[in-house]
Amino acid sequence: MSAEPDGIVPPFPPPPSGTRMTRRWQATAAVVAVAAAVTATVLVAGSGGGGEHAAAKAQAPADGLRHTAIDVSTGTCGQGWSRPRSGTQVFDLHNTSGAAAEVDLTDPRTGKVYGEVEGLAPGTTRPMTVRLGSGSYAFKCLQNDADAVTGPTVVVAGKQPQGPAAAPVDQHDLIPPTLAYQKWVGQRIAELAADTGRLKADIDRGDLAAARRDWLPAHLVYERMGAAYDTFGDADAAINGIAARTPGAVDDPHFTGFHRIEYGLWHGRSAASLRGPATALDGAVHDLLGGWPDQRMDPAAMGLRAHEIVEDTEQFELTARTDYGSGTSLATARANLDGTRAILDELRPLLEPRDAGIAKLDAALVRTQATLDALRHGGVWTSVDKLTHAQRQQVNADFGDLLEQLAPVAAIFEVRRTA
Amino acid sequence: MTDTRGSGDLRRRGFLRGAALGVGAVGAVAGGATALAGSTASAATPSAAPAGRGAGFHGSHQAGIVENVQLSTAFLSFDVTAADRRELTELLHTVTDRARFLTAGGTPAPLGITDSPSDSGTLGPRLPGDGLTVTAGVGASLFDRRFGLTDRRPLRLSRMPAFADDDLDEAWCHGDLSLQLSAPHPDTVLHALRDIARNTRGGMQARWRMDGFSSPPRPSGTPRNHLGFKDGTANPDVTDPAVADEVVWVGAGAEPAWTAGGSYQVVRLIRMLVEFWDRVSLTEQERMFGRSRDTGAPLDGSREFDVPKFAEDPTGDIIPLDSHIRLANPRTAKTDDSRLLRRAYNYDRGMDGNGNLDMGLIFVCYQQDLERQFAAVQRRLAGEPLVDYVSPFGGGYFYALPGVRDRADWLGRTLLA
Hints:
A: 419 residues; Immunoglobulin-like; 2 domains; B: alpha+beta; 10 helices; ferrochelatase activity (chain B)
């Protein structure tokens, strides 16, 4: 997507962006993880040339749906829609111009978008399947390096209920919540620096009981900042990386941070052996703190992170993949919920008018949180492997449902061009 | 909570995924539940496709029971995680809505920029229906106090007991709900499973799952199991409604009225020790079953569907008295009412720790009365020679719900409404 807003220049990094977050682990596994993290959202996927359009026209549609051929170019945007009908239907968008274009089907009165096709290559045709009720519609053609052009308004008569639509979110919309979130993260990093300093002091003076006590609060502060990890860059791997599964990987010198210290604290390692990792962790956190005022979070990542934090929880915490002996995966899961709430709180003013399922999302958060809180007894969290069958099923159900309710958030906050 | 009233209220307070409501609106149009999730996204109407090759979704009985086995199946047991009766009701509405759409086929609801796609796309942009059947049942545990259903339990429904030769693993037994998905192609089965799971995550979680298949006739007649024998030759002819009413369907009588049109479903996960079996002589194999391996004929006959004449062989010289077919169905007047409908599938799930092939049978059967039919047969089979080569380790008793009559109806309506 090309969404460079007029008049806005860095500090915000230039789009395209929205790289997927993937937890990185150390040594050999890191290569794989980095490769997996590169999930570009923008690919011009068109294939074939102009002949495709003619072929599509000649064939009766195999999908049983009503098809309408629509022209996409600066001068003819939206032409071809002469007999508007309600219902589920397909618009075959044909880019007759010389530049790639994004096409939105909008309600010109409200600006709501009913369907979109991105990266429509010159000369290609791609389908847009939408469900339309009664109302007014217009195609909007956004060619690269050109102003948006809105085609003729078309009215679907009658009293059919309208199909799913939402107002697009552009980069301008996301700047205030991103700044607010970034400020919140800065406060958390300061909190974290105090906590890792305490952990380092415990280990320095050989008090491993105190270290085991102070490890969790420090780790949870970090786990509440889930939407910022990508901005942390390499520091995230140094602070919260995990080891490969291969034998001996826990002794790899590149395995550092919270989980390295956790492994030592819960596997009878000496204080002396943990001083290096504790010093390195505290150093990495203080570096993060010092550098944070110069960092700029990517607004396009906000919506993605809102659902990826819990995706990570399901993948790494509910499987105990990241448990190096403390048995606190569910505490981490709980902190991840706090982190999800923190980012949703910032996005809420934009989300509320766009997500019809927001009440269910809120209910799912409450329910998941209550389920987790019931698994903490006297300050001690149940470890994942000690869950009863019924507890395990409830945790899986609540997180599974929560993730489904979070999926629309990422879709809605995909940054879109509006002009 | 015992609130089962007002599906409009139900849907507003819904806790399952929104996409289900989109498709569910089709049912709502006919069912009067027009108050959906309060969004414009709620009234999606997927275009209907021509009915698949399988049984239609609507009817007084569920599909997937009397119909022939299909080539591919997935059998699952679920624990219900819905918090109360209202949520259980929503869950069953959702399962119904998904099953109705998946079995009919059509275009998945387009959700525009408001959500990720409503369909996984593994069957292409338009679902083919493809003869899919979805068969749902309820287990005895659903009738505990969680949902206020203690007084509605079908008369014969209990927790499946361990029979004489069982080696049951709790992790592979029982469950609140059963769900069997069957189709001619595995991609259709897996697509349906993925869709239903996605739309019901908050309300139920799989307890165990076994995928299976049935083989084409080799070379003719009833499909064979992993032991090389035809499995289900002696099934009653349930295409005759009178036979089906006698053997399969629960009607009136002492059962709670809501059960009418349902059937008791037994599923048994039976490991077959195929390496051991392959080291047994053919004569011994055939004497254990009482049938010819090649033709499927009883040992006193020459063709698969020849009827064994046990009365003419009272000492078991031809068909041993302890052979499987003789114990299972002695074909006497006294045992006639214990006949049941077998719907078995083969399973294959990789290797065992000792290097053996991990394969066996998903034995599914339907009957009007668990005690009179399945349990009686199972007791007769206790200690049969075949037990050395098989090991039942899982399964459960379920009650296959009455059918969904029309677009306004839903699975479990008579139980919950």
